[in-house]
Amino acid sequence: SPPSEELSRRQSRVDRLYVGLKELLEERKAALEQQWWLQQLGREVGELEHWIAEKEVVAGSPELGQDYEHVTLLQEKFLEFASETGNVGQERISAVNQMVDELIDYGHADAATIAEWKDGVNEAWADLLELMETRAQLLAASHELHKFFSDCRELLGQIEEKRRRLPELTHEKRASCGGLQRALSAFERDVEVLVGQVRQLQEGAAQLRTVYAGENAEAIAKREQEVLKAWKELLAACEEGRLRVADAAERVRFVGAAKELLAWMEGLLGQMEAGDRPRWGRRWGG
Fold this sequence. Notes:
The chain is mostly helical. It is about 90% helix and about 0% strand. One of its GO terms (molecular function) is actin binding.
C-alpha cells in the first residue's frame, strides 16, 4: 500500500489511542473526584455524629436540681445550650444533607452508601432533638415542683410571722379598746391577703399530684398539710383574739357603768347625810 495510506492508518490508530487514553484519564479523574468527595462527606458525617454524641451526654443528664435556686440555674443553662445546639446543629445537618443530595444527583458511584450515611446522621440528629425536648420537659416539671416547695416555705413563713404578731397585738395593755379593735381589724385585713395564696397553693398541689407519685407525691402532700395546719391555727388565733378584744371592751363598759353607779350612790349618801331628800328622779326617772 502507498505510504500515505499507511500513515493514515497509523494516524487513525494514534487518534483512537489518544481518545481512549483521554477517556480513561477522564474516568480516572472522575473516579478520583468521587473518591475525594466521598472522603470529604465521610469526614463531615463522622465529625457531625461525634458532635451529636457529645451533645447527647449533656442532653441526657439525670440532674434535675436539689432546690428551687439550683433547678432554676440548670434550666437557664440548658435552655441556652438547647438554643445554641439547635441552631448550630441545624446548620450542620443541612450542609451535610445538601452535599449528599448533590452527590447522588450527580450520579456518584457510592450513592447507596452515601444515602445510608445520610439516614444515619439524620436519625442521630432527630434523637438528639427528642432528647433535648425530653430534658427540657423534665427540668420544667422539676422547676414547678421545687417552686411549689419554695412557695410553701415562703407562705409558711408569712403565716408564722403573723401568728407571732397576734399575741402582742391582742395583749397590748396600754392601748384603748377602740385602738385594739382597730389594730385587730387591720391585722385581719392583712391575713385576708393570704387567702388567695393559700388557695393558689392548694390548686398547685392538686395539679402536681396528677404528675408525681411515690416520694415526691408524699412530699407534696406533707408540705401542703404543713401550710394548711399553720393557716387553720392562724385563723383560730384570729378568732380567739377577736373574742379577747371583745371581752376586754365588755369589761371596759362594765367598769365604766360600775364607776358611774358608785359615783351616783356616793352622791346619794352625801345627800342623806346632809339631811336632804334624795333626788331619785335624777337617776331613775321618778
